[in-house]
Amino acid sequence: QSALTQPPSASGSPGQSITISCTGTSSDVGSYNFVSWYQQHPGKAPKLIIYEVSKRPSGVPARFSGSKSGNTASLTVSGLQADDEAHYYCNSYAGNKNLGVFGGGTKLTVL
Amino acid sequence: QLQLVESGGGLVKPGGSLRLSCVASGFTFSDYYMNWIRQAPGKGLEWVSSFSSNRLTNYTDSVKGRFTISRDNAKNSLYLQMNSLRVEDTAVYYCARAGEIWGQGTQVTVSS
User: Fold this and answer.
1) Contacts of residue A105 in chain B, CB cutoff 8 Å?
2) Do B98 and B37 form a contact (C-beta atoms < 8 A)?
3) How far is Cα B70 from Cα B82, in angstroms, rounded to an integer?
4) Looking at beta carbons, which residues of chain A come within 8 Å of B60?
5) Quick one: how far is CA B11 from the chain centroid?
6) Across the interface, do B45 and A48 touch by the CB < 8 Å criterion?
7) Fewer Cβ atoms within 10 A, N terminus or C terminus of chain B?
8) How confident is the model at residue B64 (pLDDT cuts 50, 70, 90)?
């Protein structure tokens, strides 16, 4: 199973919005509404921030939103804050004989 | 409080073995799909193995035949037996409940 494709880096100024893309195939992102996004700060475990394409777990600010079109999912972070500086990983279900596949990660820098 | 606590990591020589453990608390462990996910130094996340609530297991290709996942619902515990370890298995290993709850990770270093 090939990794999903994410841009290696993204940046924005406080208060701005940024969008991170996650491109898969018709075997994963394109076939299932089971795309998740994780935020990881240095030295910490990943934290789920979006599941099932656009749902937010309890406690995750509404500034984080997700969407999908065809084989590409997207994470939008609006009203950027300093604490949003982290790595972001997407993940997609890829069928019941697979473990699911992660993107390579995007390092978000808040300027 | 939902919690996963991993243990069992360490330094091992190539070809050696380790057994990772993950103890769960705060939820009905037997109801959930559990996973091991790893992260090599400076790299991204990789799903290693999963164990469903109906006892189906799955492995990423690079560990098939070397790693074995198991669970003991009576002890609220998930395990990963890792044999024939390779340098490229060096990573932080995370236990996760589906993808929603993660432990703090345990470091596995394979080096001569």
Assistant:
1) 44-45
2) no
3) 11
4) 99
5) 16
6) no
7) N
8) very high
Q: What is the mean pLDDT of chain A?
A: 94
Would you state the structure tokens that stand for residue A102, as one six-digit string?
């992660």
Model confidence band, residue A1 (pLDDT cutoffs 50, 70, 90): low
Q: Do A89 and B44 touch (CB under 8 A)?
A: yes
Interval B3-62: pLDDT, tens? 999 999 999 999 999 999 999 999 999 999 999 999 999 999 999 999 988 888 999 999
Distance CA B3, CA B97 (A): 10
Question: Residue A104 to residues A9, A16, A79, A99, A111: CA-CA distances in angstroms?
Answer: 11, 24, 25, 16, 22
User: Is B104 near chain A, with CB under 8 Å?
Assistant: yes
Helix and strand totals (H; E) in chain B: 0, 11
